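Q: How would the structure tokens look for this protein?
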Amino acid sequence: LFLPVLPVVFGSPERSVGMFLERDYRDALDWLNPRTTPEDVVLASPLVSVWIPGWVGARVVYGHPYETLDAAARRQAVEAWYAADGSASCRSLLDDYNVRYVLVGPEEEHLGPAACAEGLNPVATSGQVRIYAP
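A: Here is the predicted structure in token form.
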């Protein structure tokens, strides 16, 4: 039960990345939970995406390297989407995977400015995490 805390206690907090989810993301996933089905796809950063299938029950574009088909290409596509400058390539990822919701928060902003989200419809906000619908 306390194993995720061990890296922090023993002086290597960088090893605990991904073991914890920020409160704003928790609240955003709680918002998504009743609004998605197992067929819906959510776009989020790789660190956040690993939580979505188990917590929300929805699918993700990229979730985990061992549980995602063509994982390297999908991870690269997700990272490129968040790093993009808002060009025409933004829409193709959303259409290719039939994305229903997009999360943009601190973890996604580590990947880039998330300029592709600017043309999407904001549907909810949880602290620093915004949820959009294409």
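Confidence is low (pLDDT under 50) at residues 1-8, 12-18.

DSSP finds seven helices and five strands in the chain.

Upvote if useful.
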